[in-house]
């Protein structure tokens, strides 16, 4: 009877954890093709790994160790098969309705310039059920344009075409300088229950991707796409940091600390903890905590090198397995660090590299982390040459642009995996 109760708890937890994880990852339920098939498959694998990690923690917390391991395997296999089968069916239904005359949303694009081409490519890759592209309209179309075969006429032909073919949406991609034309189209669209979408082309002003957001009703552009600019994302990341760091401090730290402290003391004289000022968010200095891995010396601003004589034997093991970073979870609780983010470099490195690497200071827009995208991508350890630091910075900036909670989960998983197998560049 007790085992039946455990199974009931297990299935409730399985469903609840899946609901939470998939809620953070809308690509689990999306069937559009904004993402390529390999990326969607990779994301789905990440969700399963995150689900398994959280569920394993729940099994330990709720003392469900008597559950059959075979049951766990069958449950995950059946879930994967059901998701795969349902997505296949939905994809086929999606494609059928998209390519058929039953499409309930028909749209045209005004203009054939770069903005029109980008919009067409994006919307064409979005297999949203019931949408169908009906053609371009432009008075100044270049017939050498690859989309010229899909040109339905000029602006004078647009209104009649929309009425004859029951167009639902008009995307206007021409410069927003012709207010009379825009007002005329707006009035026509309102009178005939057609949605008019304005898609401004900023390519002449901004030569890179921009992030558009609204402050009340005022549109604003940011030349750097950074999800953590949004307060809601920062709150989610901070809640995760506090929960995760508290879990480590309460469950793992009390077990490992006495062993590590004893081994540090037995091998060399000095404090257990090593404290050092590091530049954090917006270059604000904070005290970074680590387990001491070196003999006490006066060269703490000198980066560790291979076979560094300052490093103790046990210190080398801690560096290889990243155990020396364990006290930094207290930095996370204090708000000076995050679990995942650009690694905080030495103050001397800040002075050195900010002068020769253009985006070096950009990485300090966000809170530094215990682990980071650069570290799990193979860029960890000594940086003898500038190009090695440039690669770290490149991955740090990439992390800032692509941040998501699932990305943090993936980096944590890869960090744990690297700890188990050992890092060849960690010394």
Automatic annotation (TrEMBL):
Name of the protein this chain belongs to: Undecaprenyl-phosphate glucose phosphotransferase
Gene Ontology molecular function, alphabetical: phosphotransferase activity, for other substituted phosphate groups
Cited Pfam families: Bac_transf, CoA_binding_3
Domain Bacterial sugar transferase intervals: 237-420
Cell compartments where the protein resides: Membrane
Transmembrane segments: 6-29, 41-64, 70-90, 242-264
InterPro entries the record matches: Bact_transf, EPS_sugar_tfrase, Undecaprenyl-P_gluc_Ptfrase
Regions annotated as coiled coil: none
Upper taxonomic lineage: Bacteria, Pseudomonadati, Bacteroidota, Cytophagia, Cytophagales
Entry keywords, A to Z: Membrane, Transferase, Transmembrane, Transmembrane helix
Family under the similarity heading: Belongs to the bacterial sugar transferase family.
Topological type in the membrane: Multi-pass membrane protein
Cellular component per GO, a single term: membrane
């Amino acid at each position: 009877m007790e085992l039946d109760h455990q199974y009931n708890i297990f299935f409730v937890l399985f469903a609840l954890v899946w609901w939470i994880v998939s809620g953070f990852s809308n690509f689990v339920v999306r069937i559009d093709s904004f993402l390529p098939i390999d990326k969607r498959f990779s994301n789905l694998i990440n969700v399963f790994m995150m689900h398994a990690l959280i569920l394993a923690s729940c099994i330990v917390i709720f003392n469900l160790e008597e559950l059959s391991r075979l049951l766990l395997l069958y449950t995950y296999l059946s879930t994967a098969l059901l998701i795969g089968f349902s997505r296949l069916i939905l994809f086929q239904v999606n494609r059928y309705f998209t390519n058929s005359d039953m499409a309930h949303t028909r749209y045209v694009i005004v203009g054939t310039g770069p903005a029109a081409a980008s919009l067409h490519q994006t919307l064409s890759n979005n297999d949203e059920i019931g949408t169908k592209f009906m053609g371009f309209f432009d008075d100044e179309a270049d017939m050498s344009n690859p989309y010229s075969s899909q040109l339905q006429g000029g602006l004078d032909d647009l209104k009649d075409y929309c009425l004859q073919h029951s167009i639902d949406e008009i995307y206007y991609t021409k410069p927003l300088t012709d207010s009379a034309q825009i007002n005329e189209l707006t009035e026509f669209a309102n009178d005939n229950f057609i949605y008019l979408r304005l898609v401004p082309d900023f390519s002449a002003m901004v030569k890179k991707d921009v992030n558009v957001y609204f402050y009340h009703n005022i549109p604003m552009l940011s030349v750097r796409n950074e999800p953590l600019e949004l307060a809601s994302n920062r709150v989610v990341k901070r809640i995760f940091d506090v929960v995760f760091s508290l879990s480590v401090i309460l469950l793992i730290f009390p077990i490992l600390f006495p062993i590590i402290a004893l081994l540090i003391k037995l091998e060399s004289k000095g404090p257990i903890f090593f404290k050092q000022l590091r530049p954090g968010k917006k270059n604000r200095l904070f005290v970074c905590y680590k387990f001491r891995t070196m003999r006490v010396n006066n060269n703490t601003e000198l980066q560790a090198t291979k076979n560094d004589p300052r490093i103790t034997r046990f210190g080398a093991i801690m560096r290889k397995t990243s155990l020396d970073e364990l006290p930094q979870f207290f930095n996370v609780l204090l708000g000076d660090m995050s679990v995942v983010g650009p690694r905080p470099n030495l103050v001397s490195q800040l002075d050195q590299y900010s002068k020769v690497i253009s985006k070096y200071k950009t990485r300090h827009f966000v809170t530094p982390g215990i682990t980071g995208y650069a570290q799990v991508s193979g860029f960890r350890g000594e940086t003898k040459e500038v190009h090695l630091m440039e690669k770290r910075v490149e991955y740090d900036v990439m992390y800032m642009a692509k941040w998501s909670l699932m990305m943090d989960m993936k980096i944590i998983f890869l960090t744990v995996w690297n700890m188990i197998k050992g890092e060849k560049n960690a010394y």
